[in-house]
Specification:
The complex is a heterodimer of chains A (about 130) and B (about 600). Chain A has four helices and six strands. Chain A has about 130 residues and is an alpha+beta fold. Chain A has a five-stranded mixed β-sheet with strand order 2-1-3-4-5, covered by helices on one side. Chain B is an alpha/beta fold and about 600 residues long. Chain B has a five-stranded mixed β-sheet. Classes of the chains: A alpha+beta (about 130), B alpha/beta (about 600). Chains A and B meet through α1, α2, β2, β5 and β6 of A and β2, β7, α4, α5 and α8 of B. β6 of chain A pairs parallel with β7 of chain B, so a sheet runs across the interface. One iron/sulfur cluster (SF4) binds next to α18 and α20 of chain B.
Chain lengths: ~130, ~600
């Protein structure tokens, strides 16, 4: 791995990494790359987020859906763990709460495959500093 | 098109199921059931104006919707594309209808600064942190500012310590920077011992690099090349993520020697705590890291003069550090534009207790408790009545209805008899007994007192015994005076912050819920029905049909009576287990 040798280096790296992520977000890398984040802080894991993450990875693969599943920290909705965020190409991310295997299956079949929303969406309730 | 109906507990209680059904049938009647989907969602966090219905894609937000409104929304909005004005949210300030949720005040109530990356990035991948401006702040500081200029930015931002004390962070750094020594240390306090608190854990689990980067900035400012994170061993996931983050940062040369070719070197190591509450106190923490007993010592000397290994040491809390990088990148003026006059920025709270949306929130200083509890928190569970909110953990106090509208900041909470603490917020409802709450915290402090000084070691134990006596119905009016006096003595004479604040839960409940203490002492009653010793199970002879179900299930045979005749409970034998209440199908048994 390369070392970051200067601030200019770091800035270049940031541009590249950000571009990579933006491409992913705009769905330009592949028309149907679905991005899923699983909240995997202690609260999420205690509520069973790990098996859900594995289930999602396995099932998306089995069902031939081009998706990346990553872990992330606490989204703040501890009352509704496990929570996952699903981002379909070109769309705003949607957060689902209380995701068990049945719900995960429903999310794959209905939302990811057909864009149909399913029960259990959690409305985002905060602003980040990016849009300030 | 989608119609989202809030299915949070609050809205559900007020008919959201019926609303969903009604929408479905109205849509079917208009042959639209395939074009418009009706979805039940989680809580929108606006229960006061529930039930809430949101229509997508135009983001229209309807409040206080009744099942019979469904027909109109379908006919007007769905079919004709005209919003139903009378159901739109009425902005209380402007007296205008607001249709778009993005423009509604409560949607802007949370701002994530310390939690900016939590839930966004993969914490185990440094690239994602870098893509979101990671390590730009240390880069900027190293190339553009000298240490004093950096300290001045932090001072100007108004950032105050989030570990409980609220000491100005920039000033703390300045003091440490002025003390001369061959070696200095930056310590991150990740001990987080308050019951129910998980703010720091969440930051470390969700965004470990933000803390590492801020520690290196602090190192640059005070002239330290070594950072230590004191973290409790009970946080295995946070420890794992920190280890991964440290390894990745070292690999990229963002920790270690000659960072970004500037000649500045800084590295971070972990130190594990065994989870004693007192080890969160900075002098005890330092002793614990040195391998000594985790006991506080008198200040001065402050850690900034003589800390870890006798060297100048700057101790800051996890969340304090998490605020540093955005301040450097966005500027002190940006940061100080958020918050109140003397408390700038945001605060992360862990909402817990009898509240619908238990979770982690980050709100600007100056927000009211009412907004936090009833809007963001979604109100009290099961439609019960709000009674109190405990802030500041074992050092804090209970605030009540009358405090709901004061702006939350360091100074206001102290003036109200509580404190900010590290950010635990435990909400209580009408079923909570405030004497028992005080007893719960005292039990905690008795357990956690290090025992070094007498007022805390012995005094808290006596406080606990007095409270225990009161909850058993054996308290006297003298005991209430004793509680107050002893509390004051402990506060004035204990050595460290633990003992100096431990009587706060007692004093604040005495101040705000004196009636409840009186009820326990004079009437031998617990108004909330929590204190077992004061409860009496009685059978209402009018309602009892003599089915014998209770008598058969009582484990100590305290219930007697003839079949088909009213039964009765012998209170001398009754152990108050509640088995009979569960069995009675006629609601004939109650607790008096
Ligand atoms: C009994 C006791 C427990 C404490 N526990 C913590 C803790 O868990 N985490 C923390 O950051 N500060 C804790 N503090 C406060 C620290 O002593 C210290 O003030 C703080 O870490 C300084 O950081 P700050 O200025 O960033 O808030 C505790 C203080 C006392 C008296
Ligand atoms: S106040 Fe309590 S915790 Fe603090 S030094 Fe004294 S005995 Fe120990
Ligand atoms: S269970 Fe209820 S109705 Fe039956 S005997 Fe007991 S109190 Fe009476």
């Amino acid at each position: 791995m390369t070392k970051v040798k200067s601030l200019a280096d770091l800035k270049k790296m940031k541009e590249e990494l950000q571009a990579k992520i933006e491409v992913r977000e705009k769905g330009e890398v592949s028309e149907n790359l679905v991005q899923i984040k699983v909240a995997m802080a202690t609260c999420g894991i205690a509520a069973g987020a790990k098996p859900i993450m594995e289930f999602l990875i396995d099932e998306l693969d089995k069902r031939g859906i081009n998706a990346v599943v990553t872990q992330t920290g606490c989204m703040g909705y501890c009352y509704a763990e496990p929570t996952i965020e699903v981002k379909l190409p070109g769309k705003d991310p949607v957060i689902f709460g209380y995701v068990d295997k049945k719900k995960a299956d429903e999310i794959i079949e209905k939302y990811i495959k057909n864009g149909e929303l399913v029960d259990g969406i959690i409305p985002t309730n905060y602003e980040t500093i990016d849009n300030k | 098109m989608h119609i989202l109906v809030c299915g949070g507990t609050g809205c559900r209680a007020s008919s959201s199921d019926a609303i969903v059904e009604k929408f479905k049938s109205e849509l079917a009647a208009n042959n639209l059931e395939n074009d418009v989907q009706v979805i039940m969602t989680g809580c929108f966090g606006f229960c006061e104006k529930g039930p809430i219905v949101k229509v997508l894609p135009d983001n229209t937000f309807y409040t206080q919707v009744k099942p019979e409104d469904a027909a109109e929304i379908v006919k007007e909005h769905v079919i004709k594309g005209r919003k139903v004005n009378r159901l739109l949210y009425l902005d209380p300030a402007k007296k205008e209808h607001v249709s778009d949720s993005k423009h509604m005040g409560f949607y802007r109530k949370q701002i994530r600064i310390a939690l900016r990356n939590c839930g966004f990035i993969n914490p185990e991948n440094i690239d994602e942190y870098i893509a979101r401006d990671g390590y730009q702040a240390i880069g900027k500081v190293l190339t553009e500012f000298d240490p004093q200029q950096t300290i001045d930015i932090i001072k100007k931002s108004g950032l105050r310590g989030r570990g409980g004390g609220g000491f100005p962070t920039g000033l703390k750094w300045e003091i440490a920077s002025k003390n001369k020594a061959d070696q200095k240390y930056v310590v991150c306090n990740a001990d987080e011992g308050d019951p129910g608190a998980f703010m720091d854990r969440s930051v470390l689990e969700g965004d470990p690099h933000s803390v590492l980067e801020a520690m290196s900035i602090c190192g640059y400012c005070i002239g330290a090349s070594k950072g230590l994170i004191y973290i409790r061993a009970e946080y295995p996931l946070a420890i794992k993520r920190l280890k991964v983050a440290i390894a990745q940062a070292r690999e990229y040369g963002l920790l270690g020697n000659d960072i970004m070719g500037t000649g500045f070197s800084f590295d971070v190591e972990l130190r594990y705590g065994a989870g004693a509450f007192v080890c969160g106190e900075e002098t005890a923490l330092i002793h614990s890291m040195e391998g000594l007993r985790g006991e506080p010592t008198n200040k001065p000397p402050f850690p900034a003069e003589s800390g870890y290994m006798g060297k100048p040491t700057n101790v800051n809390n996890v969340e304090t550090f998490a605020n540093v990088c955005p301040i450097i990148l966005k500027g002190a003026d940006w940061y100080s534009s958020i918050g109140t006059e003397k408390s700038k920025g945001t605060k992360v709270f862990a909402l817990a207790g009898k509240i619908n949306n238990v979770g982690l929130i980050e709100v600007p200083m100056g927000i009211t408790l009412r907004e936090v509890i009833f809007e963001i928190g979604g109100g009290i569970k099961n439609g019960k009545k709000f009674k109190a909110v405990q802030t500041g953990g074992p050092s804090g106090g209970c605030l009540t209805e009358k405090h709901l509208d004061i702006p939350i900041d360091f100074d206001n909470l102290i003036a109200a008899g509580s404190m900010m603490g590290s950010g635990g917020m435990i909400v209580m409802d009408e079923d909570d007994c405030m004497v028992s709450v005080a007893k719960f915290y005292l039990d905690f402090t008795v357990e956690e007192s290090c025992g070094k000084c007498a007022p805390c070691r012995i005094g808290n134990k006596r406080l606990y015994e007095l409270l225990d006596k009161i909850t058993k119905g054996e308290g006297t009016m003298d005991d209430l005076d004793r509680l107050r006096n002893l509390s004051k003595v402990i506060k004035d004479t204990a050595l460290c912050g633990l003992g100096q604040t431990s009587p706060n839960p007692v004093l604040s409940t005495l101040d705000n819920f004196y009636d409840e203490y009186l009820a326990h002492v004079q009437d031998k009653k617990c108004p909330a029905g929590k204190c077992k010793a004061l409860m009496k199970y009685v059978i209402d002879p009018e309602a009892c049909v003599g089915c014998t179900a209770c008598a058969r299930n009582c484990p100590v045979n305290a219930i007697s009576g003839e079949r088909k005749k009213p039964h009765s409970i012998n209170t001398a034998i009754c152990i108050k287990c509640g088995a009979c209440i569960e069995k009675c199908k006629f609601d004939a048994i109650s607790i008096k």
